[in-house]
Design the sequence.
C-alpha cells in the first residue's frame, strides 16, 4: 500500500530539516507547527513522525511528544561501536568477493577524494566546492565498499547508523564553511592527509583481496572517526556559545 501523499510531504520536510541541522538534537517537533509549515493536517504529520522514529532520527515519549534524536556520549560511543563492527566486517566481505566493477567504483572514489584533498592543501583557503567534493567522494567510497560486500541487510543498518550519527553529532551546517585561520587550516590539512592515508590502507587491502587487512584497516579508520567525534562533542558541550554567522558570511558560504 502506498503511503499517502500528505504523509510523504510531511516526512520529506521533517527529515530534510533534521539532516540539514535546521532542527537540532533534543529540539521538540510540535505537530501543530509542522502541520502549518507543510500545509497538511496533523494526521500525516503524526504518521511521518512515527516513520522517523522507526528510523531512529527522532524520539517519541508519552506526554512529551517528539524530539530530534539526541544521545549521551556513552550512547553515542555504543552506537558507533556497533557501526564499527558492521562496517569492518563489510570491508572484509568486500575484499574477498568484490568484482572488477566494484573495485573500479572504490578506486574512482578514492582517487577523486585524494585529488580534492591535495588541491585544498595547496591553497591558502578551503574552497567550499573542494570540501564538498571530499565529503561526497568519502561517502561514495564507503558506499562502494558496502555494495561490494553484497549484504543488503548489513548495508541498510550501517546507513541507518550513519544518519543517526549525522543528526546527533553535527554542528551548525554553515559553520563548516567559515574559513579557518592559517594555523587551523594547517591542522585540518594534516587531519585530511591522515584520513586519506587511512582510506588508502582500506583501498589497497580490498584491491589485493586481503580480507583480514581490509577489516583491520576499516576498524582502525572508524575508531579514528569515533575518537574525533567524541572529542568534538565534548568540546561543543563545554564551549561558550558563539554567535551565528553574519549575513555577509552566509552570503559567502552559500
Sequence:
Amino acid at each position: 500500500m502506498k503511503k499517502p501523499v500528505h504523509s510523504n510531504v510531511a516526512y520529506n520536510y521533517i527529515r530534510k530539516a533534521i539532516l540539514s541541522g535546521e532542527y537540532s538534537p533534543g529540539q521538540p517537533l510540535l505537530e501543530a507547527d509542522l502541520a502549518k509549515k507543510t500545509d497538511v493536517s496533523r494526521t500525516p504529520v503524526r504518521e511521518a513522525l512515527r516513520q522517523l522514529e522507526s528510523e531512529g532520527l527522532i524520539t517519541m515519549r508519552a506526554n512529551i511528544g517528539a524530539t530530534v534524536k539526541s544521545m549521551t556520549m556513552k550512547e553515542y560511543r555504543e552506537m558507533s561501536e556497533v557501526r564499527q563492527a558492521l562496517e569492518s566486517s563489510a570491508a572484509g566481505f568486500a575484499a574477498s568477493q568484490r568484482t572488477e566493477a566494484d573495485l573500479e567504483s572504490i578506486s574512482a572514489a578514492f582517487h577523486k577524494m585524494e585529488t580534492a584533498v591535495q588541491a585544498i592543501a595547496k591553497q591558502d583557503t578551503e574552497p567550499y566546492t573542494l570540501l564538498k567534493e571530499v565529503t561526497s567522494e568519502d561517502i561514495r567510497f564507503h558506499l562502494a565498499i558496502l555494495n561490494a560486500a553484497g549484504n543488503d541487510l548489513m548495508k541498510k543498518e550501517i546507513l541507518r547508523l550513519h544518519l543517526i550519527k549525522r543528526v546527533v553529532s553535527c554542528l551548525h551546517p554553515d559553520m563548516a564553511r567559515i574559513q579557518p585561520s592559517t594555523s587551523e587550516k594547517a591542522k585540518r590539512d594534516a587531519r585530511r592527509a591522515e584520513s586519506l592515508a587511512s582510506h588508502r590502507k582500506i583501498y589497497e587491502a580490498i584491491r589485493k583481496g586481503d580480507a583480514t587487512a581490509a577489516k583491520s584497516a576499516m576498524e582502525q579508520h572508524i575508531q579514528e572517526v569515533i575518537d574525533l567525534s567524541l572529542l568534538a562533542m565534548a568540546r561543543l558541550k563545554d564551549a561558550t556559545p558563539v554567535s551565528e554567522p553574519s549575513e555577509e558570511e552566509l552570503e559567502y558560504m552559500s
